[in-house]
Amino acid sequence: MRLCRTIVAALVLAASVTGSAALRADEPEKVKLGEFIPAASPQPVPEMSFTDATGNPATVADFKGKFVLLNLWATWCQPCLKEMPSLAALQDRLGPALTVMAVSEDRGGAEVVKPFLAKLGLDKLTVYLDPKSTAIHAFAARGLPTSFLIDGSGQVVGKVEGSADWDSDAMRATLAKLMPANPG
User: Fold this and answer.
1) Torsion-angle region of residue 149: left (phi > 0), alpha (psi -120 to 50) or beta?
2) ∠ CA 32-83-143 to the nearest 5 degrees?
3) What's the whole-model pTM score?
4) pLDDT tens digits, residue range 5-26?
């Protein structure tokens, strides 16, 4: 009888461990802030529009054929502030091979963004304005900053949630694996 109870207890324990492992497998993986997450299956960029810094309408579709890093950020977001200089450095370093689109989610638009960029010496960074937060909703971003890597055919091939060091050797190596060898 004692052996039977021991076997039953062992089976119950094994079932509970297996069951909890199955539950964990169904839970979403914990986000690793600042790390590149490749898309399991590339998806088309959602339709959305915003404006450039001078108020001209723009969409991601305007950049079809180019490799794009679309970064959602805001002036009030501390992790965004940390990340912005590395985005500017990446844009300078990779030039025509990668288009950096820094899309501000600030409701104040250009009135808030332009002086902010000038104060930080980031006036060369290509910035777009999305005061209605169209992009953050279209991408279902969970917070700021969030960045999406988009290939030349308009497919999202990966993302980064949280602040990243975009100009680090590791991040540039990750991007290089995904970018075309000879950008057009």
Assistant:
1) beta
2) 50
3) 0.82
4) 443 333 333 333 333 333 333 4
